[in-house]
Amino acid sequence: MSRCARLNDKGTREGHILAIPNGYSGTQIVLHWVIGAMIIFQLVFGEDMGGVWRSVETGGIATMSVMVWAHIVVGSAVLALVVWRLALRLTRGVPAAPEGEARQLQLAAQIGHWAFYALMVLFPVTGLMAWFGGFNDLAEVHKLLKPVILVLIAVHLLAALRHQFWLKDNLLARMKTPR
Fold first, then answer.
1. Do 10 and 157 touch, CB atoms closer than 8 A?
2. 78 falls in which pLDDT band (50, 70, 90)?
3. How far apart (Å, rounded) are the C-alpha atoms in residues 57 and 44?
4. How many CB atoms lie within 10 A of CB 120?
5. Are 62 and 52 in contact (CB under 8 A)?
6. What is the mean pLDDT of residues 142-155?
């Protein structure tokens, strides 16, 4: 176990009652990859929604194509799965940072992960409230979140590749093999 995790003599984090798991559960891993795939789907195929929204804003009629419905349904599913994933994170916990990881990098990783959770909740909530509630300002927020999550995804991928190929600490195995 990592000395950076500040464990007490019972093997739990200070101030926490959960033991630090050695890895992610099968459910956590599946949720990670399924949500990731759904977000990529949204980013790649969500452009139809932008055109329909612009039509609605200018007084036109919303043309409900399969891709528009898919955007709404997949976004709603992302929200539901993220709530499940957060519940697992808060009840089961997550593995400690790799041995020897600099404190600043541990903090950056924590900030990055919580930023992901915030975006994975804000994205669907703002989209659904804009679409079903008619909150035009939230539609703008929804649109502005796209470049933010793209940057966060890029940083996440680069960090994972750094661990795998530069540090060779096999960190990626934690998101492939349940423990």
1. no
2. very high
3. 22
4. 22
5. yes
6. 96
* Cα distances (Å, whole numbers) of residue 73 to 19, 32, 48, 109, 141: 36, 18, 14, 30, 19
Contact 130, 118 (CB under 8 A): no
Closest-CA residue to 25 (of 98, 73, 69, 87): 87
Strand, coil or helix: 84: helix
Both tokens assigned to 138: 């939230």
Mark out the alpha helices in 16-174 (DSSP H runs).
26-45, 47-57, 66-92, 103-133, 136-161
Amino acid 68 reads V
How far apart CA 96 and CA 22 sit, in angstroms, is: 8
* Backbone dihedral angles phi then psi of residue 98, each to the nearest 5 degrees: -60, 150
Q: Which of 8-12, 33-37, 103-107, 146-150 has the lowest mean pLDDT?
A: 8-12
* Rounded Cα gap, residues 154 and 101, in angstroms: 20
Joined tokens for residue 26: 């099968």
In this structure, the chain runs to a length of: 179
Q: What is the pTM assigned to this prediction?
A: 0.84
